[in-house]
Specification:
Blueprint lengths: L4 E5 L4 H12 L3 E6 L14 E5 L5 H8 L4 E4 L14 H21 L3 E5 L11 H14 L6 E7 L2 E2 L6 H10 L3 E4 L4 E2 L2 E2 H13 L6 E5 L5 E2 H12 L5 E4 L1 H11 L9 H6 L20 H9 L4 H9 L4
Parallel strand pairs: 1-2, 1-4, 2-3, 4-5, 5-6, 6-11, 7-10, 8-13
Antiparallel strand pairs: 9-12
């Protein structure tokens, strides 16, 4: 099995950019569809990337994109959706219908491989529409076998330069003197975007990755409160973090849902009922995960002596 050409769906975002760089460095030819070419211009310096304006939610467009492709990497995911049961329509469109269309098009085009990015904690009986829809998307991808070899990756929250996780809290801490925080006790095991890109690249080449689902995380677990406080230390904006009980957290999220591009939704709060951590190996094939403390100081600000001390303490419960 030789993978030369890869269709990278969702390739212009934070995670997609890291994966594109990794695959381009490995000599892969990349086809990156985007609704607006302007949004993906930052990928043009990569010599093997071709940008194509296309709507990947349209089955006919997907069929055209699959022509001559050896593998597909699907990164599409949304954090918010209108309400619905068992999940809202926006989750259904991005997390379920799109994987179904990808599988159909891949079969027809005789694509060899699919690598699908899901989410840690995805489950059909999960507490949130997000997690339930992610599980349904996984089921759609698994249905590609035996015609198409699939691999599913389930990362914890992903960090790195340009992320929407640690940088979000950095912005909030800069603006507000106190931060009321829903899900303060929720557990996370953040994974470095470079590690995710490396595993995607390796999964495309390894025969033993076919038909496998791998969790992905960093080396340490943290509470959300500890992460936010650490971000405050790194950025020079330490603030009191006030944990909210779930009832107040849901009320806060309901108010935030009224804003354009909400920072938090009630569905997000429900997702945090499930610890976002792994029970087994943090990464496949014996890979050593990158610690958050070695990367975050580089893009969140100069770390001082107190920050270095906190970095060693951060992984403790």
């Amino acid at each position: 099995m030789s993978i030369r050409t890869v269709l990278l769906i969702g390739g212009s975002g934070f995670v997609g950019t890291a994966i594109a760089a990794r695959l381009a460095a490995a000599g892969k030819t990349l086809l990156v569809p985007t609704r607006r070419r302007e949004r993906a211009r930052h990928l043009l310096p990569l010599p093997t990337v071709e940008l194509v304006e296309a709507d990947v939610t349209d089955p006919a467009s997907l069929a055209v994109l699959m022509t001559g492709v050896d593998a597909v990497v699907n990164l599409v995911g949304v954090l918010h959706s209108r309400s619905g049961s068992p999940y809202g329509p926006d989750f259904a469109r991005a997390h379920v219908a799109l994987p179904e269309h990808i599988v159909t098009a891949a079969r027809e085009a005789r694509v060899q491989r699919i690598v699908h990015i899901s989410a840690l904690g995805a489950a059909a009986d999960g507490p949130s529409g997000y997690l339930r829809s992610k599980a349904a998307g996984e089921a759609a991808i698994r249905a590609a076998a035996p015609e198409v070899g699939w691999t599913i990756l389930r990362p914890s929250v992903i960090f790195g330069p340009g992320d929407r996780f640690l940088n979000l809290f950095a912005g909030l801490l800069k603006r507000f003197p106190v931060l009321p925080l829903g899900g303060a006790k929720a557990r996370f095991q953040p994974v470095y975007v470079g590690d995710v890109a490396a595993v995607v690249a390796e999964a495309l080449e390894r025969p033993d990755a076919v038909g496998q689902t791998f969790d992905m995380a960093g080396p340490w677990q943290y509470s959300l409160k500890a992460l936010v406080e650490y971000v405050g230390t790194l950025t020079g904006h330490p603030r009191p973090v006030i944990p909210l009980p779930e009832g107040l957290a849901l009320l806060q999220a309901a108010l935030l849902e009224c804003l354009p591009g909400p920072l938090m939704s009630r569905d997000n709060v429900r997702s945090m009922r499930v610890p976002n951590v792994v029970n087994g190996p943090a990464q496949p094939w014996g890979r050593r995960p990158t610690a958050l403390e070695t990367i975050a100081p580089c893009y969140l600000g100069s770390i001082n002596k107190r920050g270095r001390y906190d970095a060693f303490q951060l992984h403790r419960p």
